[in-house]
Amino acid sequence: MRKQNKTEKKGRIMWAFIYIFAFIAAFGGSIAFKMKHDPFGGEFKVNWNDSVGKAYTDIAYGEGEANQFDIYVPADDSRSSYGLVVYLHAGGFTSGDKSGDAEMLQWLCSKGYVTAGINYTLASNDNPDANVYTQSIEIKESIPYVIAEATKLGYPIDEMAIAGGSAGCCLALLYAYRDAETSPVPIKMVFGAVGPSSFYPEDWKCYGFDIGSEESDAAARIMFGTMAGKELLSDFGTPEYDEEIKDISALLWVSKNSPPTLLAYGKYDKVQPYEGSQRLLKALEDNQVPHDYYLCEHSGHGLQNDNKVYGEYTRKILEYLDTYMPIK
Amino acid sequence: MTLIQKRILILIIVIAMAAVLGRLVFRAVMNLLLGGTLFGGNFL
User: Fold this and answer.
1) What's the CATH number where A287 sits?
2) pTM of the model
């Protein structure tokens, strides 16, 4: 009897360990699966090889260490002209690299476009003078180099689209709305996700700037001033403030001539405000700029909880390219 | 139901709960970092 009890006890202990192990394995496994799983089943990826296209990396466009771009050209080099799609990387203006967008650039290249990812000098202790404005100027200066390189490789560019994610989206919008007139080729469209385009403290609730106290206004002034690379002296909400911040606020450059715009934002974004995207949406509507705006109702800055909407947005990119920059 | 069948049933329940919890925790952490809600959107 005592021996049977001992065996049962041993069995219970063994099963307790099995339950604990199974719990840990399933818990960790499900996290790993969630991290690695592609919810789109490879729809927005391509198996990159010479039959699809070729990549040329780290081509210089300026003096700075970061002034480099990667260019992806399609295998078919028989056409007389090509559309260029530039995709600018994310990273809060302080981190990130063009290589992080290789998948997107390869996928768009596989559709017949020349694509390019461009690095810009990131704001850091090593580069204290870098800010959103200087980064936007670097992008502006890089485009002729990208076009020249594509032409040198046998892919003459006659039109372009510019795009990006987060910080890259901010820079893409600036180029599309502010610098289009200086572009060597017409900008046919712009697309991007979660890019800040306006800098009004009442919108930036995620940073507590909406409180309207002296401290919150001062904090907003410091942050926006750092981004713009200048001291902001005017009162918020005045035309003088708009003039000061205009260098980095794509919203303030929207006009009837702005290119068709495709956007995606997250309603719960904690990194840049959803409210700012509503201002941009209104400006596009007011100026009758062709646009589509995808709102991820449950997501934040990563658009991570709305795969269905994100998938629709990404499919819409191809629709936009077919409409505004079709393969000739 | 024999004892072993009961234990296997419990094991399956433990694995299912851990898998669901793992995905929920991951989503909660992402929401904490980036913003987002646990209610609605993608399943888990």
Assistant:
1) 3.40.50.1820
2) 0.93
